[in-house]
Amino acid sequence: MVIKPASPAPRDLLQLSTVDVYSPPKYVSTIFFYKSVFGESLEIISERLKTSLSETLSRFYPLAGRIEGDKIICNDEGAFFTEARTYLLLQNFLKNNPHNTNSLPEFLPTVTPGEYAGTWPFLSVKVNFFGSRSGVAVTVSISHKICDAASVLTFVSDWAATAKAHESNDVVMNIPTFASTTIYPPHHSSFQSSSVGGLYPFRGKCATNRFFFKSSKIAKLKRRATSETVLVPTRVEAISDST
Fold first, then answer.
1. Do 109 and 122 touch, CB atoms closer than 8 A?
2. pLDDT digits (tens, 9 = 90+) for 226-242
């Protein structure tokens, strides 16, 4: 299904920056695993994710658009959203597959790249529900054409805060700024986008690894990452700060 912004985009076109112009139209995916909250049905979780994603897209409206040449058309076509379910328990999956990365592609959204990147959605999300309401895996795939790792984390953090606000009725308003073009303006209006086919020969030469940290080590990293600006760093912040 397609999730569209809760409110229309405030502008029609956004110019790609020099960095984005020459970035390959390749998806970058991140998988987040969550334990389910006791008593919540899958239907409630699903609806909350969809509603909060729609609200978040209103602020991150370029992700709901499409690309044409060196511009983003903010036409509110929306993001792709799919769901899948398995009888496998989350704890069993994490316990039995500590070093196996071959199963991770099953959590990724199915996107078939075409010759023309303008047909691709910038954002594709897949929600995987584990058996017996044991947990959820949320995979976020965003086109590297318009997002880097920092941008992805900013979007995911805002989406998570918006979803959490639905539980506590808190108001979340985090307005991002899309100013990369003013910092890195394109040299000229005509350009040749990076070739998608040129990326494929490198398949098979990449290695995927999973890193595990003991709770005692994470606690030590959190203490080391504490600062005046971040008094109580999260586990992700502590580990990211050390890498």
1. no
2. 888 888 888 888 887 76
